[in-house]
Amino acid sequence: MIKSGKEYVESLRALSPVVYAFGERIKSVADYPLFAPHVNAAAMTYELANHPEFEDILRAKSHLTGDVINRFTHVHQSVDDLVKKVRMMRLLGQKTGTCFQRCVGLDALNGIYLTSYDIDKKYQTEYHQRFKKYLKFVQEKDLMLAGAMSDPKGDRSLRPSEQEDKDLYLRVVEKKKEGIIVRGAKAHITGTVNSHEIICMPTRTMTEDDKDYALALAVPIDAQGVTLIFGRQTNDTRRLDGELDAGNAKYGIVGGEALIVFDDVFVPWERVFMCGEYDFTTELVETFAGYHRSNYGGCKVGISDVVIGAAALVAESNGVEKAHHIRDNLTEMILLAETCWSCSLACSYEGYKTPSGAYTINPLLANVVKLNITRLNYEWMRLAQDIAGGIIITLPSEKDYRDKDVGRYVEKYFKGKEGFSTEERIRLYRLIENLAVGAGLPEAMHGAGSPAAQKIMIGRRGNIEEKKKLARVVSGIKEDIYFQKIVGMKEKEYFAQILRA
Ligand code: SF4
Question: Which of 3.30.360.10, 3.20.20.60, 1.20.140.10, 2.40.30.10 would CATH assign to domain 284-458?
């Protein structure tokens, strides 16, 4: 089935997760005003799949059933699928100007698909078959999954099993005939409160001592023992103050993250996809991280399209759109963003088939995408601030703008060039404030792993030994067989001949 945006929102009303936010228990996620922008942004991943102009990007054919499904539930079957995925990310970034959250679950599905296949091959387990059944269920119901990787981690110099509090990484505390009991938490998990399911993966490489922590599993969002505690964001309560001050009142600001507590949660075996196979934790972590890092040149670049547009419009509304420095800044923003987009396309086009039959991205280039985003996203947002000016942090509130006594002053003194109303200008400035000053910046830094994690992967995959070999050949330390073919003799003879001439 392919749900519409409205059907997705409606489907949340049928669930009863235990959610806390701002010190209260939230009765209905779909009806809580502070969650509304996050719900709307996620709903866009459903809605666009129902419009013919986006179907090629937002829909895919299930390799399990042959049915047409939402691409957010698809396991990539070709390079074309990988490319369409990042196109989908850019499109949704353009339509929402924020994080639409659903990609983490998509990447978890793909990461576990590959890894469960490899575990079964080594240990003759049945994780992959189980996982395929689960995937079919997700595709048939068009579900949104919260991909949960990060554990709280406690003292980071200690391994999971060495922590004083053993629950600081999600772990299995009991194995039963029908399933397992898990305890612990996952932290900073995007889109959780408005997901249908939670899909968990280990957060790091585990050793034999940590095998109770080597877990991949899925639970319904309202499984017994699961508690969600919503995180605060910059200016989040502005949503309650009207439409203008939030900057992006419809879709919010970044993904809406939560702490997920697992208080002795029962997980039936059919929903367990790794349990103790610590030697596959690296594969799962790296595969998932590669998929997710490859997205950032899509979603963040889609958002950059919005902020570049907003910056160009405020420049026009100030009558400075032809000034050299404005044009230069806008061009620079485009250059930076398209560089990241090129990286996302490249790591998708360089993707390849895995033993499971599914496709994965080029992991080196995926880490390059994300590391670039941790830097260049700040740079294009800095340029947006430069173009917009300090007004983005000094504008009066919407309440003053609407006030019967002082509203006319705001109207009069914040007017710009003919053709733009004061309200339009306020909307644009607030949008830039939301995008260039808010929580989106650290999200670009730390989402999908911090810069150090990408550097480790780039260092590992960069193949410096191969580069040393190249340097040895070009510098003449090692034999250059192709050069010898060109000149028709050994290098030493060739240079001796030059000296004699
Ligand atoms: Fe998707 Fe980007 Fe949000 Fe990650 S940060 S969940 S890739 S929109």
Answer: 1.20.140.10
